[in-house]
Design a protein that fits this description.
About 30% of the residues are buried. By secondary structure, the protein is of the alpha+beta class. The chain contains five helices and eleven strands, in the order βαββαββααβαβββββ. α1 (about 20-40) crosses α2. Strands 1, 2, 3, 4, 5, 6, 7 and 8 form an eight-stranded mixed β-sheet that branches. Strands 9-10-11 form a three-stranded antiparallel β-sheet, with no helix packed on it.
Length: about 250
């Protein structure tokens, strides 16, 4: 058995696939594979070397050698181009609009398919409500991308030549094992993904211990009196002579 290894993982999923007639679903699936494989080739990636697992209304792609930078950059760009070209010759009912998720991590092939936390995370991301909302709000486009927090922190934020991090927005994910996690969404053609609510930024916490509040100092008058509560004490050498003061009155 092959040991688990670190892989790039991408998942494309067709919006509104199940509501179409069976013959249309068949045509849409054929178009999807054509567009995806052409995009991989145009991005300089070999489709024959990337394992592609059929998901009915989508394709899971896993490879240990492909960088997530190539997937999130060149591949997504070429995929967007290909979908636009296909839309020009397709009827409205056969139009393909994709949700795309990209992650990376440990996984393995068990002879039947790919398993591992990285695969599960990618599947949760592609079904995340913020991603669905972004694609639904961007009616004129054919693709919306989501990347995991790890991919954004390690790749996207560095603004390599094929990536513009300013077009991504951080969103909160609330899905099974990803509850409390964040991810980043981009919609090609938009400077800011529509239909999403930015995840709140946590307030910075200080690791320095709190300093104790200084004790209030007793006030001493020029005439040698010390006020302590409601008692006025006159200092005479080493002796203290006290006079009780009631309601701020006299001696």
């Amino acid at each position: 058995m092959v040991d688990p290894a670190f892989h790039a993982v991408a998942l494309v999923d067709i919006e509104g696939f199940g509501g179409r007639p069976n013959p249309v679903q068949r045509q849409v699936r054929a178009d999807l594979y054509q567009v995806v494989r052409t995009a991989l080739t145009e991005a300089g990636l070999d489709p024959a070397r990337i394992d592609q697992e059929d998901r009915g209304d989508g394709i899971l792609m896993v490879d240990p050698d492909v960088s997530v930078l190539a997937l999130a950059g060149r591949f997504v760009r070429e995929l967007d181009y290909g979908l636009r070209e296909k839309a020009r010759t397709s009827s409205a009912i056969a139009r393909i609009r994709l949700r795309v998720a990209i992650h990376q991590g440990m996984c393995e092939h068990d002879g039947e398919g790919w398993v591992g936390a990285a695969v599960n995370t990618t599947a949760r991301l592609v079904d995340a409500p913020p991603l669905k909302a972004a694609l639904a709000a961007a009616e004129r486009v054919n693709l919306a991308l989501i990347v995991s927090r790890q991919v954004f922190d390690e790749v996207i934020r560095h603004d390599y030549r094929s990536i513009d991090s300013s077009t991504f927005e951080r969103v909160a994910i609330d899905a099974k094992e990803l509850r409390g996690e964040t991810a980043w969404i981009q919609v090609p053609g938009y400077s800011y993904p529509p239909g999403v609510m930015a995840a709140p930024t946590a307030a910075p916490t200080s690791t320095e211990p709190k300093k104790p509040k200084p004790k209030p100092k007793r006030k001493t008058t020029q005439s040698g009196f010390v006020f302590n509560g409601n008692t006025r004490i006159r200092v005479e050498g080493d002796q203290f002579v006290g006079d009780k003061i009631v309601n701020g009155g006299g001696q």
